[in-house]
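haha ok so turns out i had the wrong file open the whole time. this is the CORRECT one, sorry everyone. sequence first:
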Amino acid sequence: MADTASGTPERQPRPLDESLYSIDDEAFEFMKALTGIEDPEGLKKHILAVQAEAYAVRPYNCIRRFSFINLKLGRLPAYQQLLSLGTGREGAIFLDIGCCFGNDVRKVVYDGYPAGNCVASDLHPEFWELGHKLFKSTPETFPVPFIPGDAFDPKHLETVPPFYSPPTTPVPHLPTLTSLNPLHGHVSAIHASAFFHLFTEEQQARLARSLAGLLSPQPGSMILGSHVGRQEKGLRFESGQPSSIRTAPMFCHSPESWRELWDGEVFKKGTVKVEAILQERDGRDLEGMPGFIPGTKIYLLIWSVTRL
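then structure:
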């Protein structure tokens, strides 16, 4: 995750709410397999403890509402396409950006993507350390490289034009990375969920271009994810006042504006296939927020961008 500086005083974060905890059978089996905790109440207690530590680092709503146990990546329509890249393309690098605890990169490795081809990045290295605590792993038992950094810092991720021919730079040795820049043109798949909606419209466009510059020009290379969207592109006033993280209303793309951004603005028109749909999600976590309009529908924009 990345933040933007603001001189506006932050609101106090909303308190954690244990009633928002919910885990389905698939997520429970995944968490049980990785943690070794088989008792549902024991697992819940463990998750709540790590959640509290993470919320103290940065009170993101996705932490408050337990999004990190919902297997976001594994539920995306393009997930099998991603796994096929991992098994069918030699050396296919996978980047999980805004990775938080690393739950999604762990899921992709659990499902067969080669761990040696994976890398993760987030602004807050504390989240990655808490990921080891959450999943009871160590850098030795889960050796996927983690590169801390701000996605808007050119020293970490410089914006370069998309590649339409193979890059001339060598493929980097992932464990030696100290920034994402050596990956320009070499990444086969990028996952970014609960990430774009943290930023303004202009910042989202810049971030899209930055990720596009990392992507391999090989057909089938892809970027996929999900974040908050709207039926019509614009600021989301209807879900309440800005939070302790956000000092202005959230900007949200619609499926149409998201497709237009990637196909024609970020990449040359016709060189990518963009799929984007809205999916209504439970908004219980927003109830009680000042300005929240009861009955407001909250949508996730679920999307993928594939090079042709």
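The two ends are 29 Å apart (CA to CA).
again sry for the mixup
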